[in-house]
Structure formats: structure tokens, C-alpha cells
Specification:
With 119 residues, the protein is α+β, with helices and mostly antiparallel strands. The protein has a single domain, classed as Alpha-Beta Plaits. 32% of the residues lie in helices and 29% in strands. It holds the Pfam family DUF6204.
Length: 119
């Protein structure tokens, strides 16, 4: 059985932030800019509190079977919750989406390479 790679996106909205928490997030905003976004095992957080209170975590996970994607999404949500709660940030509307990369359509370069190899 081969290992499957999952990309999990967890979205939500900061809720009930104090002035100090908001200032802290604004101070660290450059570290969490969307241009630095990446899918990582520990999770990558992006937000722009100056514009709106929404945030996105991006996680990279893996599993052996197709149904492992559900557990990956649960782990990602739990990690996002833990990160927020450890810092005392209120949040709401937490939801996740997950993608199994083994089932993702091939990009133009990948199709060309597959055709070249005769796959």
C-alpha cells in the first residue's frame, strides 16, 4: 500500500480579541502573510487582521488509505484549536477541507512528463 499525501486547510474567524491580542497579531502579521503560506506538517498560519478577522491554517499530513483523510482533517482542526487556545485567541466558524494529492488532477507539466514517459 502506498502512502497518500493530504493537504488540509482549516479556516475560521478570530472572535472577541482584546486590544492587546489584536495588537500582537498586527505586530506579527508579516510572519503570517499569505505570501509565506505553505502546507507543512506543523501547520502554517496566515491572516490579515488589519483587513478582516479571518485566518487560515495549512497542514500537510499523510495516510495509507483513502479514508485516512478524515482523520487528517480532524488532526488539523485539533492542532489549529490548540494553537489558538494556547494563546488565548477566541475564534468561531472553524471548518476544514482536505485534498488527497494522489487524486488531484495533473498540471500541464505533469501531463507532459507523463506523456513523455508513456504513462
Amino acid at each position: 500500500m502506498s502512502t497518500r499525501t493530504f493537504r488540509v486547510t482549516v479556516r475560521g474567524v478570530f472572535n472577541g480579541l482584546s486590544a492587546g491580542q489584536r495588537a500582537e497579531l498586527l505586530e506579527r502579521a508579516a510572519e503570517h502573510d499569505v505570501l509565506r503560506a505553505a502546507f507543512t506538517p506543523e501547520g502554517s498560519l496566515t491572516y490579515d487582521v488589519a483587513v478582516r478577522p479571518a485566518f487560515t491554517f495549512r497542514f500537510l499530513d499523510s495516510g495509507e488509505a483513502e479514508e485516512d483523510i478524515l482523520e487528517a482533517a480532524e488532526r488539523a482542526e485539533a492542532s489549529a484549536r490548540a494553537w489558538l487556545e494556547q494563546r488565548g485567541y477566541g475564534y468561531k466558524n472553524l471548518r476544514s477541507t482536505a485534498e488527497d494529492l494522489s487524486r488531484a488532477p495533473l498540471g500541464k507539466r505533469q501531463r507532459r512528463e507523463a506523456a513523455r514517459k508513456g504513462v
